[in-house]
Design brief:
This protein has about 400 residues and is an alpha/beta fold. The chain has 2 domains: about 5-185, Flavin prenyltransferase-like (Rossmann fold, 3-Layer(aba) Sandwich); about 195-405, CoaB-like (Rossmann fold), CATH 3.40.50. The chain is about 35% helix and about 25% strand. The protein is built from 14 helices and 19 strands. The strands form 5 sheets. An 8-stranded mixed beta sheet has the order 12-11-8-13-16-17-18-19, with helices on both faces. Strands 2-1-3-4-5 form a 5-stranded parallel beta sheet, with helices on both faces. The chain has a two-stranded antiparallel sheet with strand order 6-7. Helix 1 (about 20-35) packs parallel to helix 2 (about 55-60), helix 5 packs across helix 8 (about 135-145) and helix 10 packs across helix 14 (about 385-405). The chain is elongated and about 80 Å long. The protein starts with 10 loop residues before the first strand and ends with a helix. The structure holds ligand PMT. The site of ligand PMT has 28 residues, from helix 10, helix 12 and strand 16.
Length: about 400
């Protein structure tokens, strides 16, 4: 049996920037080609000081792309076409200067323009002196790029070209090939899956200045949306009012009340394969909305509440509806309440979390989830919500595939 590499026939742009590690990129390009990848090389002017374009042209059999405003290059494969052609772009080596330009969103050369114009997954392999790497400016640029979805491969620690020892060496070509393979495998794990996730609180207005809300920050739901997009899913995020920016590659629909959320979910639910309800939807709303600000008046005020629709239940009740995952926020008897919600709402899976404690739950960057389904369960221990979201999706995909193909 011939085992095919995930890189086989993949369109990969290797972008080389000005760093002494540029010489290693020649071997990187060769190794990618050996595994069946179609490689095109983009170089910055700085990179050309370290290695000649001729080397990459000979290794790839393709012209090397250097200038943004080169009419002959634009006539063959222009920057937008290149951006569309790429299945992934790996910037190796990524110099401190290039990281800063990318973080600032500049488009002053071919490489930075490509990165703005592509929807392909992007990776950086930093290479620089250890103090440059440690510098707060570089660290904040890398963090900014990671928030935008860039994958950071390395750097490694060790002896540097400048004679110093520390973190800043570019990963070896074989390690980069491995990292890229993992990235492309992950990027297609949920390819073709339409996933909808709800996140955040809902606000139930009392009058023009007051509302009933809750402490949900949206972090859990947004982490699930980001992780699913990272795995290649087509993601719709229906979000209550939160202070978070929508993750890259996710379609975000902003709503306010439970009824807004229900309308939005139901109008986009057709064709959704997996529905995950991480939102803390208000169970009740004020029965009447006062058009005018309610005056302080008496020392006691009565507020009459009406039950909101249960969005999760409505989705789970659909004939041929999606694989449905609910959350259960509980302060006590967590398993018992979660399991009864699983059965009562006819869910495929429920994720129980303990709230009101000192760690995890609402607002925190961390959480722990106990997953339950008919006949089974799995515990995901306390960890960052970003990591937890990935672990949750692995479990969801396993159960989803089992549901559509029980023989698996
Ligand atoms: O947003 P964070 O600050 O990161 O916090 C994360 C979280 C604690 C909000 C999240 O992990 C969580 O537990 N979300 C569900 C909270 C909740 O409303 O739980 P519940 O047990 O009351 O509801 C059960 C399920 O029914 C939930 O999936 C909920 O989205 C859904 N529901 C509830 C009421 C309603 N009217 N419609 C619904 O769809």
């Amino acid at each position: 049996m011939i085992l095919m590499s995930v890189l086989d026939k993949k369109h990969i742009i290797v972008a080389v920037t000005g760093s002494i590690a540029a010489y290693k990129s020649a071997d990187l390009v060769r190794q990618l080609g050996t595994l069946g990848a179609e490689v095109r090389v983009v170089m910055t002017r700085g990179a050309c000081e370290f290695i000649t374009p001729m080397t990459f042209q000979a290794l790839t059999g393709n012209p090397v792309h250097i200038d943004l405003l080169d009419s002959s290059a634009e006539a063959s494969m222009g920057h937008i076409e290149l951006a569309r052609w790429a299945d992934t772009i790996l910037i190796a080596p990524a110099s401190a200067n290039t990281l800063a330009r990318l973080a600032a969103g500049m488009a002053d050369d071919l490489l930075t323009t490509l990165c703005l114009a592509t929807s392909a997954p992007l990776a950086i392999a930093p290479a620089m002196n250890r103090l440059m790497w440690q510098n707060e400016a570089t660290q904040s640029n890398v963090a900014r790029l990671q928030r935008r979805g860039y994958n950071c491969l390395g750097p490694a620690s060790g002896e540097q070209a400048c004679g110093e020892v520390g973190a800043g060496r570019m990963l070896e070509p074989a390690e980069l090939v491995d990292g890229l393979s993992r990235l492309l495998t992950a990027a297609s794990a949920m390819k073709g899956i339409k996933l909808m996730v709800t996140a955040g609180p809902t606000y139930e207005d009392i009058d023009p200045v007051r509302y009933i809300g809750n402490r949900s920050s949206g972090k859990m739901g947004y982490a699930v949306a980001a992780a699913a997009a990272h795995l290649g899913a087509d993601v719709t995020l229906v979000s209550g009012p939160v202070a978070l920016a929508p993750p890259p590659g996710v379609q975000c629909k902003k709503v306010r009340s439970a009824r807004d959320m229900q309308r939005c979910v139901l109008s986009h639910i057709a064709d959704v394969d997996i529905f995950i309800a991480a939102a803390a939807v208000a169970d009740f709303r004020p029965t009447t909305f006062s058009e005018q600000k309610i005056k302080k008046g008496e020392s006691e005020q009565l507020l009459t509440l009406t039950a909101n629709p249960d969005i999760l239940r409505t989705v789970a009740d659909q004939v041929d509806g999606p694989f449905t995952v609910g959350f259960a926020a509980e302060t006590q008897a967590v398993e018992q309440y979660a399991r009864s919600k699983l059965v009562d709402k006819k869910l495929d899976m429920i994720c129980a979390n303990r709230v009101g404690g000192t760690e995890g739950g609402f607002e925190s960057d961390k959480n722990a989830l106990d997953l339950y389904w008919q006949g089974g369960g799995e515990a995901l221990p306390m960890g960052k919500k970003t990591l937890l979201a990935e672990q949750l999706l692995v479990a969801v995909m396993r159960r989803y595939q089992y549901k559509i193909k029980p023989s698996n």
